[in-house]
Every structure is written in structure tokens, then in C-alpha cells.
Amino acid sequence: MSVREEQQKYIHLMQQYTEGKRLKYHIVTYGCQMNVHDSEKLAGMLQEMGYEEAQELEDADLILFNTCCVRQHAEERVYGNVGALRSYKQSNPNLIIGVCGCMMQQQEAADDIIKKFPFLDLVFGTHNLHHFPKLLYEAINSGHMVVEILDEEGKVVEGLPARRASNVSAYVTIMYGCNNFCTYCIVPYVRGRERSRLPEDILDEIRGLAANGCKEVTLLGQNVNSYGKDLNKGYLFTALLRDVNKIENIERIRFVTSHPKDLSDELIEAMAECEKVCEHIHLPLQAGSNEVLRKMNRRYTREDYLRLVDRLRARIPDIAISTDIIVGFPGETEEDFRDTLDMVERVQYDSAFTFIYSPRKGTPAARMPDELDIEVKKERLNRLIALQNDISKARNQLYMDKVVEVLVEGVSKNNPKMLSGRTRTNKLVHFEGGSELTGEFVKVKITLPKAFTLEGHMI
Ligand code: 5AD
Ligand code: SF4
């Protein structure tokens, strides 16, 4: 039986179970776009099994927590939020609660969750997402907690249904795992080694999305620049990008994440030549000091990074650049930190995700001496954020009175009278308009640039 056939068997069994019951699910997702897309796959399987989505957790018959372990804070939130469900479960014994995702791939964290929350029905990791219908079926029928965590990543499984948050803009995984082993990062341990999906599977998926009205795809991988190397076919990321660019009705292509050490001139050339590839790149810097970069095992220097930015801007003049930065890595001196501030000044990022270093058990950095005082880390983070906010504001100011192309995502979350959408450079734009414009490209004149968003009116 193929993986998909086995899955179908349990989906059918679950359909018999859910029939006539109008059962609802609610998924709480932590972490990165990979996790968001894994949740879309879980939702896709749940819909096939006959569940409907519950907007509120309180209305759900099945609650799933898709966890993240990249920083301590994300883990703490899982403990708090799962713990808060204890009383729900007491008042509704039929409620099914599951915990899955990256945190569960760490033996210790999984053991701890199982011990602390014996009322859970289902615990599983990232490598066996496709077993979810079977695990759910077993949990419901056995009446005891079902746990399945696989050490090995196994083969790439194709053909899983997904229920995407948007019809207009879709995430498409192109590869799983990471081989880089940055010393602070837990991802290679919980997501396994790099495994690329076959080009034809990716292209078929995107053609299918386009046929359903999708206009924008974001290609996902921990390090998309090394796509295809493990397939040994000589078909690499640039080839994929050029082929996606040929797919009719897809108008915009984005990708995350790029590792600076693997961003080749060929890729910059492909970005410049492919008219659908958007003028935006997420290029994590992590730190500005060569000593810290070395200890992080990033395998580039600040000089390499600056040259890369020059090459990008020379070939794609209006490109927006965003980044990830960690402050307070073990042994980071005030001088090292000033190197980070200096890089932020030099590069002039459009935006940055900034993090306080969080030691992750099992990673090399967690064993490094000179862990800094939390107050020092916080103070550095605040200085970094203040600097970046000024730069973000100044970068957005450049849009004043400009007319931009916006792909309308829908009604703004904060103001029902406004629509929101993004520019090709990934800037969030708010403007007045009717919800029927969702999924359309419109021209907006920017009249009020802010630090994190742009406001304007349609022309
Ligand atoms: N502590 C703080 N930030 C981290 N990141 C990854 N691991 C850690 C850690 N241990 C950040 C990196 C990465 C982003 C997704 O999360 O900046 O690019
Ligand atoms: Fe983690 Fe580095 Fe891989 Fe990114 S490239 S997932 S930071 S190990």
C-alpha cells in the first residue's frame, strides 16, 4: 500500500466516524512559515476526514497545537496554552487534544509534555505528518494517548491535501530539513537533513494552484538556495525559479529563506531576469561581527555579506531586503554588538526580525561559555530595534507619492473599511476599497508611509 493509499484508508474510516456529527477542529500554530504550511496540510487532512474549521478554540471538538522549538519563549507558550485546556477536557471528555511539530521531535520535550499533560490524546512529530489520520483514528478508538515520534526523516511524501489560508497567495514547500548546523539552531536536529521535492511534483502543485486562482507563490525551505543539490540531477534552485516563472496565471514568485553563503550570482541573475520574481529578499545576517559569525558557523564574513548586498542592489535596484538578527550570542562583546549595529546602518534593511539568543539544548552554542546576562541582552535588543525602526521608517518614506502595484489579500484585520495587500517589495499596504477586490492587482498611491506599513488610495 502506498503512503497515500494508507492515508486514504484511515481518512475513509474517519469519515464514517465524523458523519452526521458536524465536528470542528482548531489548530494553534507557532513558529515559521514551514509550520504554518504544515498546519495547512493538517487542516487539509481534517477537511477530508469530515471536520470543519472552528474559528474559536472554545467551539472545537479537536484542538491541535503545532509547536516550535527554535526559542525558549515559543516552548513556554505551548506549556501555558496546553495547560490551560485541562479544565476544558474535564468538562468535555469527548474533546480530542493533540500536540505535534518541532518541539515533539526533541525526546526530552516530548517526554515532559506527556508527563505534565496526561490528558492529551495525541502526540506526534514532524516526520510523520502524513500518519495523522491513522493516529487520530487510533486515539479516538483506543481512548488512550497515542504517541508517534520518528527519529528518521524518511522519504518526501507527495500528494497530501492542504487547506490553505488564502486562495490568492500560497506557500509551496520545495525542500525539507537543513544541513547547515548554525551552532545556535535546533532546526537541523528536529527537521532532519535536506530533502528536495522533485521538480515535477513542485511544478504540478503550482500549476494546480494557478488553475484554482492562485496568483502568488512563496517557495519554502530552510535554505532554498541549496534546493536540488541532494537530487544530483544538476537541476538547482535557479532552474526551478525559471520554470515556475513560466507557469501561466502565477504573477508573483517569492521564496524564503536564503542563506547568504549560498546565494550565487546565477540566482541574482535569475531574480533579475524572471519578471514574476518579486523585488524582495529575506537574507538573515544573524550577527555583524566576524568573530560571532565564525562562532555561529555561518560561513561568511561581514565583508562577504556587504558584497552580496552590493551585487543584489546593482542588478535589482529597488530590491527590499529583510533579515534576521540574534543579539547576545555567547561571548558577544559590546564591540561585537556595535558591529551588528554598523551592519544594520550600512545595509539599510527594510525590516528585521530581531531575537535574543536562546540556548537550545543539544546545540554547540548551548555549551559555549560566556552566556550573557539577560539585562545586557535586552538592552542590546532595544538599541537594535530602535535603530532598525528609524531605518524602516526612512525606507518606507521613499514610497511617499509613489504608485505601487498591490495584490489585494482581503479586508484589513484592524479596520473593516480598509483593504490590505502587499507590494512586490513585500510592504503591507492599507487603503479603502471593497472586499470584491480580494485577489486582484490594484494600483495604490502612497500618501502616508509609516514604520511598518504604507497607507494610500487606489487610483
Ligand atoms: N536563539 C535565538 N534566535 C534563534 N534563531 C534560531 N535559533 C535561535 C536561537 N537559539 C533565529 C534565527 C533564525 C530565525 C528563524 O530564528 O535568527 O534565522
Ligand atoms: Fe537553522 Fe542555520 Fe539551518 Fe537556518 S540555516 S535553519 S539558522 S541551521
Short description:
The protein contains 14 helices and 19 strands. The chain has 459 residues and is α/β, with parallel strands linked by helices. Iron/sulfur cluster (SF4) binds next to helix 7.
Outline the structure in words.
It is a single chain. The protein has 3 domains: 3-148, Rossmann fold (3-Layer(aba) Sandwich); 169-397, tm_1862 like domain (pyruvate-formate lyase- activating enzyme); 403-458, Nucleic acid-binding proteins (OB fold (Dihydrolipoamide Acetyltransferase, E2P), Beta Barrel). The model has no long low-confidence stretch (mean pLDDT 95). It has helices at residues 3-18, 33-48, 72-83, 86-91, 107-116, 132-142, 187-191, 199-211, 237-245, 265-273, 290-295, 302-315, 334-347, 374-397, and strands spanning 24-29, 52-53, 62-67, 96-101, 122-124, 146-148, 169-173, 175-176, 195-196, 216-220, 252-256, 280-282, 320-327, 351-356, 403-411, 418-422, 428-432, 441-449, 453-458. It is an alpha/beta fold. The longest helix has 24 residues, at 374-397. A hairpin with a 6-residue loop joins strand 15 (403-411) and strand 16 (418-422). Strands 2-1-3-4-5-6 form a 6-stranded parallel sheet, sandwiched between helices. It has a 5-stranded mixed beta barrel with strand order 15-16-17-19-18. Helix 9 (237-245) packs parallel to helix 10 and helix 13 packs parallel to helix 14 (374-397). The structure holds 5'-deoxyadenosine and iron/sulfur cluster (SF4). The site of 5'-deoxyadenosine (5AD) has 13 residues, from strand 13. Residues 32, 70-71, 184-185, 284, 286, 324, 326, 355, 357-358, 360 line the site of 5'-deoxyadenosine.
